[in-house]
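We modelled the chain as a single entity of 413 amino acids. Its sequence is:
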Amino acid sequence: MTDSPIPDRDDQTEQDRRERLERAFQARSASVELPEVFPHQELLYWLEIANMGVAGIRADELMRVYERYGSIEMLLTWSRGDLLELGARENLGLNFLDEKRVQSLIEKRERVDGEVLYDKLQIARTSFYPIVHPHYPRCLSNIHNAPIGIYTRGQMPITSLGMAIAIVGTRKPTSYGSKIAKTFAGELASAGLIVVSGMALGIDSLAHWGAIEAGGRTIAVLAGGVDHIYPSTNRKLYDRLLAKEDGLIVSEYFPGTEPKTWMFPSRNRIITGLSNALLLVEAGAKSGSLISAKFAFEQSLEVFAIPGSIWAEMSAGPNDLIHKDSARLVTSTKQILSHMQVSTARIADFAPIAVQLYGREKEVFDRLANEPTHFEQLTQALEISVGELSSALTMLELAGLIERLPGDFYQRA
């Protein structure tokens, strides 16, 4: 790490202070090369900055400090006056250090302790990579409003990331959409692509499972901390993502952070930021998945969409993307791989399976037949509560394994 002038805590004359600042202003302007082994102390500085909650300081601005001085230590140690003067020097490009943000830095930096944060990460089995870390995905660092750092949990090495595709869609897919999501994810994963999604119910979860069942790799980007399973019904999927080297959990928030409504649209930029292309399977006209498509277009990714009936509510989103936003209409994974210049030779025959069915879900599925069965009949036959049955039926329906018919009847899809 490059040495950078750090203020002396002892009393100084104005001349001494000016001389020290001048040495800082004259520091080299060439970019600092990312070290192969990131210094532990520098990691702690970034952990502190990332968790101080200083509004308005962006990752690219912090990078400018690091590129000039090889450290962001001064943001955590310099006096208010020194930081304001640093920001006032136009030739340094650090004008984000204005009165408001410097005051916020001064007030909040004493409330965080990098060592304490680091110890909590160790307990949570979580890694942290600031944007200047050599293992921070370069594709993610290039997006607008990139995360200051990312937290990861899982056995997949972040250094092994390669070509990836985001697969997104509605939380309430039809049987048509469910089968496509799982089948396409499986075939694309078998061809070597990493499947990236948000571990939400519906298309997201199906895409993750499709990649897993095909023996491929998949990344789940969460809106809350990497240890916060949302929805809680995805516990089995979450555990499976952590069980082997084919899964990884990613978030921009410290472990323990509960997801808030505004965090979900924000996390979509990370889903696309980690990907080379996006596939929208099913989505309503106002689906949150269209936010992901918007980010994908802004990031110059290839955007693919599955067409559907003009009468189908969940095909409105993909159809609009195709007709209004120039998304590529695709009906096979070979078309996707061809546009991404990935060989189609490795696509394996993939038939989605239901290996994730356990407990009540399996009992309910086994009980259902191809003929409609009423909700009350299932309750009596299985001797379970109305709540348990409703939950199991919802999960099976979202997985595309059963269909709900008028009058509260159910049958296998």
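As a brief sanity check on the tokenised model: The chain has three domains: 14-114, 158-339, 359-412. Confidence is low (pLDDT under 50) at residues 1-11, 27-32.
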